[in-house]
Amino acid sequence: xxxxxxxxxxxxxxxxxxxxxxxxxxxxxxxxxxxxxxxxxxxxxxxxxxxxxxxxxxxxxxxxxxxxxxxxxxxxxxxxxxxxxxxxxxxxxxxxxxxxxxxxxxxxxxxxxxxxxxxxxxxxxxxxxxxxxxxxxxxxxxxxxxxxxxxxxxxxxxxxxxxxxxxxxxxxxxxxxxxxxxxxxxxxxxxxxxxxxxxxxxxxxxxxxxxxxxxxxxxxxxxxxx
Amino acid sequence: xxxxxxxxxxxxxxxxxxxxxxxxxxxxxxxxxxxxxxxxxxxxxxxxxxxxxxxxxxxxxxxxxxxxxxxxxxxxxxxxxxxxxxxxxxxxxxxxxxxxxxxxxxxxxxxxxxxxxxxxxxxxxxxxxxxxxxxxxxxxxxxxxxxxxxxxxxxxxxxxxxxxxxxxxxxxxxxxxxxxxxxxxxxxxxxxxxxxxxxxxxxxxxxxxxxxxxxxxxxxxxxxxxxxxxxxxxxxxxxxxxxxxxxxxxxxxxxxxxxxxxxxxxxxxxxxxxxxxxxxxxxxxxxxxxxxxxxxxxxxxxxxxxxxxxxxxxxxxxxxxxxxxxxxxxxxxxxxxxxxxxxxxxxxxxxxxxxxxxxxxxxxxxxxxxxxxxxxxxxxxxxxxxxxxxxxxxxxxxxxxxxxxxxxxxxxxxxxxxxxxxxxxxxxxxxxxxxxxxxxxxxxxxxxxxxxxxxxxxxxxxxxxxxxxxxxxxxxxxxxxxxxxxxxxxxxxxxxxxxxxxxxxxxxxxxxxxxxxxxxxxxxxxxxxxxxxxxxxxxxxxxxxxxxxxxx
Lengths: 226, 552
Known about the structure:
The structure holds 2 protein chains of 2 kinds.
Chain A: H1 5-30, E1 67-72, H2 89-102, E2 106-111, H3 118-128, E3 133-137, E4 143-147, E5 157-159, H4 167-181, H5 197-215, E6 223-224
Parallel strand pairs in A: 1-2, 1-3
Antiparallel strand pairs in A: 2-6, 3-4, 4-5
Chain B: H1 5-11, E1 42-45, E2 48-52, E3 55-56, H2 62-70, H3 74-82, H4 85-93, H5 99-106, H6 111-118, H7 123-133, E4 142-144, H8 152-165, E5 169-172, H9 180-194, E6 199-202, H10 206-215, E7 220-225, H11 230-235, H12 240-252, E8 256-260, H13 265-268, H14 277-291, E9 295-297, H15 313-326, E10 330-332, H16 343-354, E11 363-366, H17 385-395, H18 406-426, H19 434-442, H20 454-466, H21 471-480, H22 484-499, E12 508-509, E13 515-516, H23 536-543
Parallel strand pairs in B: 4-5, 4-11, 5-6, 7-8, 8-9, 9-10
Antiparallel strand pairs in B: 1-2, 2-3, 12-13
Helix pairs in contact in B: 2-14, 4-6, 6-14, 7-15, 8-9, 8-18, 8-19, 9-18, 9-22, 12-14, 14-15, 18-19, 21-22
């Protein structure tokens, strides 16, 4: 599962660069020293990277029981564009949606802003979803299938080791989410495990997640994400 | 420039596949001392802490408030806060200073004070201190018992072999969340088959974990996570007060608990507030102390890739463990998560707890091959058993394990898998076939076992919870299936919750269900000739590894 050392370092450097920009920007706004200032839990969202994208539509709830919502994290396809192992966000989202459609259900993507935690993104997606089943997807690729009546930190299925995920896995996640939504008896996906994932990826995961967390805004409601 | 062949070889060494990063205090990538860590200070007015570590009470976050109100001994604070940090550090490493004096001194320290004290110690001094400061005189260790298929027969078999090998606690978790009750029951049965008195737990979401404990499927709980910054707590929908409440819920049912914390979690969650990992971890430990739980699992734990990536990070992990011991908490000292591709590096990291001994050196050791470890890999696994036994023998150190004979291991594996098969049948759960029992008996890991019907298993688990099955039903099913001895042992484990002695700090049970804890086995180390010494039967057992040259 080793990615090329060169790619890895380049990615770290890129993420570090983005983080420095945000830290400096925020320091300028706060007029203080660079870095996260204590207690500033809700940074203003960055306008810069969104300039080329259409303004997201405000979310309005559907009661369609065929709807399965895919909730993505605050940095998804914005400041970050690929998962920990380099899968492009657009393709990951497309695969999950295709999996939902294959089961005759209706996928709908929303961007969750109030949290960067995968469990809570998934829980939010499930609560917004017409079927009560949702998929949570962090920008680093960690995913969960959630249902609205479950405790936030439990789930129907969790995919904690993002570096092991392929596009085919993401399609299966869409399929399984749709089957749960239909009330079927669903066979959970085969569990993936590589004991060296942490050694290879944890620092990079931290840098990506810092980026996503910096964009979380507890007061901002979820928006439709086309 | 032509490339150097030597540098090419070095570049390809396993250690160079690991992730390393320079210190970056703004994001919390800083092991023991961040330029943004506060200076120690404490002001008490009218019996109330009104200022701590440079912050006035009105500016406290809820961690500050909880620590100030519940975790600092005010009558001790004057002496502790005015003592030089170097002096307290020397007390820790000095064999002539009894453990109790250090505990008393630390009980009046603020988090920033304790962090500064520990930063004076090098790793050898920390090991000297740990040898004296761990709560229980006798060291021990814990196992992880999991597999990728959540196969109950394999869980029972691995638990039985693990117990036979000497693990005093065994912890399982799930690949699929809904398997939790099945894994807990299989672990409970398997552990008591291998050697009675082993404590077991199932690490899952907190409400589920509590439900499993209340039903008697587990005998302790460890996954009560606390964090060093308010934002990470809030992101997890929690506060120190809710964790204290959860602890009380366990205590009300007589269940042993320990919290879990560890450096790097705040960095990984993006909310380290520029502080060093050690300072944040000491805040966690003082929340743990204040909440009244008897112990903690710490030493970075699942975030070990973060401290391991920065300078002095592995030293910081030992400093965390030592901080827990100095706060008079039971310390299950991690070593439970893979963090490096290098065998040399992973062994060196574990020596820091193995050599001085801790209450639980591992929390835990993968008693299955690492590909089956559902905590995403431990630092040591089933393939390292013989290496570990030789390390104990080489250095005359009690690391908590012992060599076992193949036929003994196979016997307990078969019995445990057979017992869990019988119980599943009695409880109306998905069938465990004779073929699965056989496979689990001789397997190394789940690559050697047939597929389970995962759907039937999770539906069975749901129904078992809905029907209100408890630990007593497991006892009954065992007795009715002819496994009277295992039934007796499981019942004895349930009885612990009524007698309650194992709620004392650092408690484990021997195979006759006698409690060994900080109360009746207190660490009295004070230099050569004192404290725990490997000897007698235990030393003979450690020496008898299977691979010996026969001389007669």
